Amino acid sequence: MPHPDFQPLSRTSAHPAHPVPAHPVLANAGPWTPLPWADVPRYDARSVATHWARLHAGHALPMPPDNSALAEGWALYHSGEFERAATLGLLHGAEGLALANQSSAIYADYLEPREAVRLAMFRQVIERAGAQAAAEPDNCQALYWQAYALGRYSQGISVARALAQGLGSTLKGALERVIELQPRHADAHLALASFHAEVIDKVGALVGRMTYGVRAETSIALFERGLEMHPDSAAGMMEYARALLMLHGESRMGEATRLYEQAAALKPADARERFDVELARAGLKD
C-alpha cells in the first residue's frame, strides 16, 4: 500500500472492493494522445499469443485464453492503443488490472504531454495497484506497477521530496518483494537497480546506504542480472547507461554510449519498445 504520507485521491480508492474514481484532472483530460507513428507492430488476439513470450520477456505473465477479451486487450496495448486497452482492462475487474495499470502507466510515461495529467495518472495507478497488492500480497503485477508508477511520480515531484514522504521505501519494498516472489522478473531487477542509483545520485552514497539501504555495487549487479534475463530491453540499457554516469561520472561515458548504441540498434517488438529505441537514437544525437 502507499506510504501513509502519500495522500490518496479518495478514501474509497484505498479499498480493493471500490474502483478508483477519476481525479478531476483526468475527468476533464479528453482523449489520450495517439502514437506519432503509423508503422508500429500491430497485433490481434491470435498474433499476440504467438509472440507472448517475447513481448513479456521482462516480466512473466500468464497468457490469457485464446481469443478472449483480455487477449484482445493485450493486443491493443502492444499495438499502442493504450486508452482502449486500459478501458478494456478496467471492464474485467481484478483480472484486467494488470492490463489497465500497464497501459495507463506506459501511456503517461511516454505520450501524455501535460504534467498535471501525467502525475494524476501515475497516482491513480499507484492507488489501484496498491489496493490490489494489499488484497493480494503475492500479486507481482500489482506490486510491480505500483512501484513503476511510484518511481515516475517521484521523479515528477522531485526524488528528494518523494524520499522525504517515504515513497522510496514503499517502492523499494515492492520491487524487492517482486524479486523474492519471481526471481526471473527482469523488469523488477532493472527498476530496483535504477532506484539504487538515483537515490545515491540525490543524497550521496553514505546517506543512501545508511538511510535507504542503497549501494552502487548492488545497482550494477541488478542491472547486469536484469539485462542477462532480458537482453533486448532498450529501456534497461538506457537506464543502465544513466546509472553509470550518476554513479561514476564521465569516466564511464564510453560504456554508457555503447549501451545507448545497442539500444538504438534493437528492432522494437511493440509500441512501447518503439518509444525506447527512438529515445536511444535521440540520445545519441544530443
What would your notes on this structure say?
- The longest helix has 21 residues, at 115-135.
- The protein has helices spanning 24-27, 45-50, 52-55, 69-78, 82-90, 97-110, 115-135, 140-157, 159-164, 167-181, 186-203, 205-212, 216-229, 234-248, 253-264, 271-285.
- Mean pLDDT is 91; it is low at 1-20.
- It is mainly alpha-helical and 286 residues long.
- The termini are far apart.
The dominant shape is globular
Over the alpha carbons, how many angstroms does the gyration radius reach?
Answer: 18 Å
Helices and strands: which structural class?
A: mainly alpha
Beta-strand percentage range: under 5%
Distinct helical segment count: 16
Average pLDDT score: 91
Please write the string of helix (H) and strand (E) elements: HHHHHHHHHHHHHHHH
User: What ranges have pLDDT less than 50 throughout 5 or more consecutive residues?
Assistant: 1-20
CA distance, first residue to last residue: 39 Å
Number of strands: 0
Largest sheet: none
Helix content: 55-70%
Task: Break the fold down into its secondary structure elements and pairings.
Elements: H1 24-27, H2 45-50, H3 52-55, H4 69-78, H5 82-90, H6 97-110, H7 115-135, H8 140-157, H9 159-164, H10 167-181, H11 186-203, H12 205-212, H13 216-229, H14 234-248, H15 253-264, H16 271-285
Helix pairs in contact: 4-5, 5-6, 6-7, 6-8, 7-8, 8-10, 10-11, 11-12, 11-13, 11-14, 13-14, 14-15, 15-16
Question: Features of this protein?
Answer:
single chain, 286 residues, mainly alpha, disordered N terminus
